[in-house]
Amino acid sequence: METVFMFTMGALLPLVLITVLLGIAALVLTYMSHRKLSSHLLSSLNKARREIAEIAATPAQTRGASASPAMSKAAKAKAARARKAQAAKARKAKAAKAKKDKALKRRNVVLKTPEELAQRAEALSELADIMETLDCDWQISGGTALGIVREGDFIPWDWDVGIAVKKEQFVNFWPQLVSKAQQKGFVITLVRTETTENNEKVLMTKYGQEFEVLSWTLVDDYRVRKIFRRPARFFDKTEYRELRGRQYPLPSPVEEYLEEVYGDWRTPVRTYKKDVYFNQKNIMNRPGGLATLPGVASAETPVGEPVQPMTLTAPDGEADDLQQITGIGPVMETKLNEAGIYHLHQIASWTPEEAAWMDTAIDAAGRVTRDDWVGQARALTQPEAADMQEDAQDATETDMQADMAAETESVAETAAEGAEAEPDTPETEENPDRVVTPISSHTAYPGATGTTGQGSNS
User: Fold this and answer.
1) What share of the chain is helix, strand, coil (3-state, %, to 5)?
2) How far is residue 123's CA from residue 186's CA, in Å, rounded to a whole number?
3) Rounded distance, CA 380 to CA 133, Å?
4) In the chain, which end has fewer C-beta atoms inside a 10 angstrom radius, N or C?
């Protein structure tokens, strides 16, 4: 009996132990499950408390707006308008800063890098290929000619290349020039084909380098453009000089030409002021210089028939605030925009004939001339002209004052905000700034912007 009991206990004891262990395991699992559930519940409770606190801290009007879909949309629209206005203000401030930076750069001589000069040489060779296909006599002129003769290369602070042609040929070949240049990848920035002041030209850029083909009008024994003149004999003969492995035509005899243009051309001069580096005796309407030649337009030239200026189909980037000009209010600005005028440099480039045309087109009742919109636009877009005028006012000699005033008036003719202005290049006697100006044939180049500027010095 005892043996049976011991056998039974020996068999049941492991079962009892297993049962106890399973019970303990069940208790542990139950405890852990309850703890996890409690943690989850506690987390949810804390989250709910935070949400309640946030709602309690929200202003009543905001809670009302959130509850009202209509008010929420109105608030969103108002916020969107505020963001848009802020962005526009920021863009305007950025443009103003860029304009100020450009004005500061004009006071300094900036040297082209070797890479930029290599790009200039490549683009000039391509332009020379085009010129050779046209029925015209063309020459490298101005600062580029000076660099070839004096330096045997480009002048590092000369930022553009001038090509001189005869007007009687220019009026016939300019459409081919524009077409072929565009096919070669040049960007045409200005085309002017008929003016009362002998200022016909084509401006273009490639690889960031600037080029201008300038037309010179025959008057007696001279070739003239604007207030500048050159003896016609320099345009009738050419001599070739090498520049970076290619032969280019120059006025002949070239050293006499350089002396005629610059006086002491052998001494480098780094300045943008034409009264310093040009030979003043060959500039018309200047003290100590020339009187206006017969057949050359002067400041007293009467206004001809109204001519439509070049317009844009859309602003080139951000439209300018035209209301900076006295006489232009919101209504007049809207009319100008509808007529394709979005930028100050467009107004600054108007000739008297174009200003008269626009005055009639927008029904300005004479405001364009009376309030001198063109003069105001030039003052706003050409800080360096104002600097030159201020310098003249500080001069002690009255003839210097008259000289600088005339220079300011001449260089301001078609100036605009645009491309980075640097010191003047001899012979590019146009404007210190390249601008979009009218095409007298009324051919428009949408999106074209003025970026060409005067080269610098001798």
Assistant:
1) 50, 15, 35
2) 9
3) 41
4) N
Q: Would you say how long the chain is, in residues?
A: 458
Domains of the chain from N-terminus onward:
109-296+419-458 (3.30.460.10)
Tokens of residue 233, six digits: 């004999």
Give the type of residue at 446.
P
Q: Residues 315, 380: contact at Cβ < 8 Å?
A: no
Bridge partners (DSSP) listed for residue 216: 166
pTM of the entire structure? 0.47
Name the DSSP class of 425: B
Tens-digit pLDDT profile for residues 345-373:
889 888 888 888 999 999 888 889 888 89
DSSP H helices in 155-287: 167-183, 233-236, 254-262, 274-277
Q: Which of 224, 233, 262, 225 is nearest to 143 (CA)?
A: 262
* CA–CA distance, 452 with 268 (Å, rounded to integer): 23
Q: How far apart are CA 94 and CA 100, in angstroms?
A: 10
Angle between helices 254-262 and 142-150 (to 10 degrees): 120
Place of tokens 């509808």: 338
* Residue located via tokens 């008297």: 352
Nearest-5° Cα angle at 111, 145 to 346: 80
- Each residue's pLDDT tens digit, 132-187: 999 899 999 989 999 999 999 999 888 789 999 999 999 999 999 999 999 999 99
The half-sphere exposure of 94 on its side-chain side, counting CA atoms within 13 A, is 8
Q: Please, are residues 91 and 319 in contact by the beta-carbon 8 Å criterion?
A: no
Residue 91, Cβ neighbours under 10 Å: how many? 12
Instruction: Decide: 330 and 322 in contact? Cβ < 8 Å.
Output: no
